[in-house]
Structures are given as C-alpha cells and as structure tokens.
Amino acid sequence: MKSDSLTSLPAFRQLQEHAQTVAAWQMRDLFANDPARFGKLSISAAGLFLDYSKNRLDAETVTRLLALATACRLEEKRTAMFDGQTVNNTEHRAVLHTALRVPRSDIVMFEGNNIVPDIYAVLDRMERFTKKVHSGEWRGYTGKPISDIVNIGIGGSDLGPRMVCQALRSFHCPRPRVHFVSNVDGHDMSATLQTLSPETTLFIVASKTFTTLETMLNAGTARDWFLQKGSQSDLAQHFVAISTNTEAVGAFGIDPENMFPFWDWVGGRYSVWSAIGLPVALAIGFDHFREFLAGAHAMDVHFQNAPLHINMPVLLALVGIWNRNFLGMASVSVAPYLQDLHYFASYLQQLEMESNGKQITRTGKPITYATSPIVWGNVGTNGQHAYFQLLHQGTDVTPIDFITALTPSHSLPGHHAALLANCFAQSEALMLGKTEEEVKADLKALNMTANEVAFQTPHRTFPGNRPSNTILLPQLKPDSLGALIALYEHKTFVQGAIWDVNSFDQWGVELGKVLAKTIQAELENQAEHPHDASTSGLIQLAKSALN
Ligand code: F6P
C-alpha cells in the first residue's frame, strides 16, 4: 500500500490549493506592495540571521506550512529526538548528537543514565591529548614533536572535520598541520604521504564502524608506510583511533588506550561534535572547539524551545518543503560567499541527501510525494562564473541558500564589500529579473538599431522570480559555524519529520558496497561471477590493464 499519510492531510491539500494562486505571483510585486516584507519574513536566532523574504510566499503561506508541521506532529517528534527515544527505528537507535554539545552541568538521560559525564570524560581526554600534541609532550618515535596529523576516514568521519577545519582556517594553531585522506583512490594517500615524515606524523583512523573498506585500506597503507621506518612498538605514538568498535580497533593494532570512543546514538553525518571532531580540536585548539560546541548548543536551545512560527530551523525547513512539494523544485543550491566554507556544499550533500534521500516511510510504505531535493553548490563568487547562468536563465528554477558573514576574518581592504555586494546582488537579480521593457530601454540607450534591439532583447531578458534565502553570520568563527551546522541539522530533521522518513539510516549505500567486494575479488583473479554485459565488459577491460 502506498503512503498517502502526508498528501491526504487537509493541511497538505490546503497548501496545494494555495500554490495554484501563488503560481501567478511575482516577488517583485510582493516587495513593491509590502514595504514591511523583509521584517516580516526574516528571523534572528543563536547569533544568525535568516532572510527568507525572497521566496514565492507570504504570511498566509507560512501559516499554512506551520499547520502542516503541526499536523505532522513535529513538536512531538522533536521531543522524541531530544528525549533519546528510538528515532532511528531501522537500526533501533536513539539520535542524541545534541547531547554532545550541552554544558557540563546539564543532565541528559538515556536508558536510565545521565550520559553527560561520559561525554565529558571523552571531551576531557581529547583536551589532554590536544594539549600534549600542541606542547610537544606527545612525541614521535625519534623524540621529535608531531608536525602533521592525517585524518583517515570517509563520509561523516571525514566531511565534518574536513569542512570545519577548512572553515576555521583563520583560527589554526601554527602546529600541527592537518591533512585528510578519504578516497580509496591511492592517489589521495600517495600524494599526502609524499609530503610527510613518519617521525613526526600522527594518523587518526576515524571510523564509527571500523569496517569501512576505504578507511581500512588507507589505514593499512599508512601503517605499512610507517613500519618502513618505525617499529611495531612505535605505532602507539603514531596511530590513534576514533570509533564505537573497540574490538576492531584492537585487532588493527591500535592500543585501546589510544582510542577515543563515541556511541551508537551518534549518526556518522552528525558526529563532528564527538571525538570525530578531534582533528578540529587539534587544528584550532580546545578552547575554540568548546566555542564551536557552544554555538551549536545555542541553536539547539532555540530549536527545542522557540514556538514553531519563530523557530529558525523550522522556518528554513518549511520554506524548503514549500519549494519542493508545492512549487515542484527538484534541486537546491548552496552558495556560501565565504571561501573558507569551500566544503560546505559537500557536507550538506551528505547531511541532507543521506538523511532524507528516501522513498519509504518510517513504517515501510512507498512514498508518493517528493522527498530530499538534490543539494549542490560552490562558493561565491566562483559559482557566478560557472553555473549561475543556469540559475538566472535556465529552464529549471533552483532555490539557493546564500550564506555569508558581515565581518571578515582578514584585514585586506576592499575585498569584503565586494564579496557582500556580489552576494546581495545575486539574490536581488534572481528575484527581480529584468523585463523586456527594461532590456529594450537599456539597448536603445546604447544607440542600437531597432532590428538589433529586437534580436538581442530575448537573450538579455531575465525571468526573475527565482527564490533564495540569505543567512548572515556576524563573522565566520567557531560559535557561529557551530550554530550554522546545527541550523541545517535541525532543518534536515524537520523535513524528515514532515516527509515521514527515517532521517538517520542510510541503507541506500549498502548495495554498492557489497557489489564492490565481489568485483574486487574478480579484478584480483580470486573469483568469477556472472554480470550484465556492460559490467562484465568493464571488468574484462580493467583486468587486462591490471594484470
Ligand atoms: O557510506 C555510508 C556511511 O555509512 C556514512 O553514513 C558514514 O558516515 C560513512 O559511511 C563512514 O562510516 P564509518 O565512520 O563507519 O567508517
């Protein structure tokens, strides 16, 4: 039986009817008719500012979206998550990443115990370790201090710390340098090792399961490389692990003393706040890491307590639901106008698409409505000179999240005003567009012939009415970055709650992993398996090249 649980709700139907009216609306008229629109459709929380006024909606639309959220029992589902109920019902796990960023004095009960002391025991160990590496007390096997850290992990065990380390470049301590190797492609590991010395390199093997093929292969390669110079007994100074799987860590040869644990109730893509954040702490120092956690906690407190109509993650999520389910927009672009948020789009891809890229409800029924849009993007202004043409004049309408900071973390004159001007100009241009009349007037002013004006006009006309949100940070700092990531985590949760999917499992990545194992055995001449003609042909070509 198909799930009609969402689409049969009166609140959903009322939004569908409303969308038919809204189809004729032009945002430029909405702004012209309501000078207070910006004030009405924007919100501040946890130090961030969200302007969602450049969307095809009005206060009535928001009211109807809020009614949908209520009909989907959003508040009840939010309570269930914060209370440690088994929200991840296919893996039978709670979802408590928010507990990782509470103050030490808070109490978070899970299965009858307060888990905050356990969380702080690990944070305290991370702090001691970070301080030892920074002070040079932690030394390599020849007595030299650690100069380089290599984080070996993939997915949530890579994207979070990689994105955050890059985002907080201005806060990096002089030592150690932090590198990330994720890809099973040996070019990644090989290029990284070429720049390093085994005497001064420390590897962090980060894997929740400690079974992920890419990570295990890369970790084995790193260990072999190290053992060319160091000995087995030196490994303890050069390898630490972050995992939930103590047994597998021991089997790999890492001393459990050198293992930083986390818990089943932390999903991989929600794990940067746990020991998985160790490379971040090493890069920016533990005081800044604490500020990062505190920024996320401020957003958690807001999300948990603010009424839905003044709740930033809820509003951001509902605008996304409106664009996706009622206006039919299939992808969402993210454009951070901050070079240091270079990896933010990749991070959001995992967060949103691995969480809500689902076609089955929580109770196992096929879904008849759209779930996660495709998330993609790159930093501005670079994207403007690559794909913004399509955003302005392409046949698909793609909503965009613009993200920027009011104050830069550098002192170069001129750059930041230019950056902000471009960011605001893009959202204005996408919203306003440029009418035929406006184009013609411009072209006539250039003294073009009437024929040339007629020919040029359609090419230079912009449809406009293209939606965007703008998120402003005061400055890209540990606390504001923490709040920004938590904003998107909760947005993802709210959308999953409305779409009635389990946002915390990821069965869709399993099939490819299983087939890859089979094919690898074939490429290494250890097995033969029947395949379709295309896969067989490709395997044969690869075998002749490899053997
Ligand atoms: O491939 C999916 C996935 O399970 C992600 O959800 C996860 O973040 C990643 O693999 C890495 O997993 P692990 O931390 O267990 O190595």
Keywords:
Rossmann fold; single chain; 547 residues; alpha/beta; binds 6-O-phosphono-beta-D-fructofuranose; 22 helices; six-stranded mixed β-sheet; five-stranded parallel β-sheet; 47% helix; 3 domains
What's a concise summary of this model?
The chain is an alpha/beta fold and 547 residues long. The chain has helices at residues 10-22, 27-33, 37-40, 59-71, 74-82, 116-135, 159-167, 186-193, 213-227, 235-238, 246-252, 278-284, 286-305, 312-326, 344-356, 388-393, 415-432, 436-445, 450-460, 478-499, 510-523, 533-546, and strands spanning 42-45, 48-51, 109-110, 113-114, 148-152, 177-181, 201-206, 239-243, 259-261, 331-336, 374-377, 400-407, 468-475. It contains 22 helices and 13 strands.
Largest β-sheet summary: 6 strands, mixed
Q: How many helices?
A: 22
The small molecules bound here are: 6-O-phosphono-beta-D-fructofuranose
Strand content: 5-15%
Helix content: 40-55%
Mean pLDDT: 97
Quick one: overall form? Answer: globular
CATH architecture of the largest domain: 3-Layer(aba) Sandwich
Instruction: Give the uncertain stretches in residue-range form.
Output: none
Side-by-side strand order of the widest sheet:
1-2-13-12-10-11
The H-level CATH homologous superfamily of the largest domain, spelled out, is Glucose-6-phosphate isomerase like protein, domain 1
**CATH fold descriptor of the largest domain:** Rossmann fold
The figure for the number of domains is 3
Structural Rg: 25 Å
Structural class label: alpha/beta
Give a count of the beta strands, DSSP E runs of length 2 or more.
13
